[in-house]
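This section describes the prediction task in plain terms. A model, or a person checking by hand, is given the sequence of a single protein chain and must write out its three-dimensional structure as a string of tokens. No templates, partner chains or ligands are provided. The sample shown here is typical of the held-out split.
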Amino acid sequence: MNRTASGCVPALVMGALLLTTPERGHATDAQTQAQLDSMKRTIEAQQREIDELKGMLQQKATPSAPAQGTVATTQPKNEAVATQAAPPESKGGVAEAVEKSKFEVYGFAQLDYIQDFKRVDQAWDATLRPSKIPTVSGAAGANGQSVLSVRQSRFGVKSSTPLGDDVLQTQFEFDMFGTGDNAGQTTFRLRKAYGSWGDWLAGQTNSVFMDGDSFPNVIDYWGPNGMVFIRNPQLRWGHAWGGHSFAVAIEQPGNDIDPGQIRQIDPELASQITSREKVPDLTAHYRYDGNWGHVQVATVLRDVGYQGLGTPDNRPKGDETGWGVNLTGNIKFGSASQLILAGVHGKGIASYMNDGGTDLAPGGVQDAPIAKTVPLTGLVAYFDHGWNDQWTSSIGYSQTSVTNTPFQEGTAFRKGQYASVNLLYSPFKALLVGGEFLWGSLVTKNGQSGNDSRLQISVKYSFSSNP
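The expected answer:
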């Protein structure tokens, strides 16, 4: 039926007019009665049409009951019937997950102007690492060096998507500070690439053995040398309850070997000795957070191996057990200041340190050319202070020291020290300007020493798609 209720109104109005308008002419009473009966039938017919239209509208608004002999089923929320497309207004499955997903692009552009009063290894002149300070005058060039660097600049993306009963989170992040074979270059350096869902995490991020909150508010890129600091590929399980949290992981092993005096006895053998990683490192930590701050204790257990490369039966070869305990924490003073303390000790853990030392070193010549894990101790003490909402400072000291083996060379790292103080100004959340004075020193096994001091001024512009 193509009629609508509004189409009946003119007929009703006409009927009413006929009833109320005096009849013209000389019609008889019988004719008048016939006209009234006809109009009455017309009105009744139109009323039936109106009732029929109302019924159709109600039927569209109310879901129909299941036909007799069929079973009514409850459709899962936000899920379309398999054989019928979901109505345009419904949002279920992938569409709903995409709508609820959060995606952020973030990072910063930073320029560091460094005026070095002495010198460090030229490949590392954009930061201060005590292990890169020369102990022989002129070894890195004449004193005084000016450096302008954008290597700290960073770019990253984050996502958060509901998945089942939990949330899938991912992060991919890199900066421009070349290391390893790219040391000294402004090039891509992967920092983080991981995903987490519930209690599980897989990918590269901060090691379970480290405490990222023990890194003070400094603008030098590398930071205090005596702290555990490494971002490692890993498979992690962790759980938090109340203020407590626990995590355990297997992580990528990496052994740093010092052939030492083997070079003097047998240079060819020394060049053929390389690391051997048979099993992943095992790491774990427990952490407690309170209103006063936090405390964390972390451990690592690792197999530190070595082998000959291209030698008969790959000899010499062997394995040593490496281990370490890292105790960290901070104590809050008000809402803008904190004392950061960290101490780590172990054997064969230099690969996890921010700077200094080696995992393995020669323990003998005749029976075991490389067979000793090197004992190491690291310390950090820093105070971060907020003067107000815009001005902050950080001051502190750090060191790494090792117990050298008898067959390490005299130039081997023995002790490195690091200290800094700064004043930073942030008039807006996205803008930071500040200056920092740094000092570092290196002492080798044979007692030779060197030191360096520098001034760094940085300008940092941050950005985020979700400020």
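For orientation: The two ends are 57 Å apart (CA to CA).
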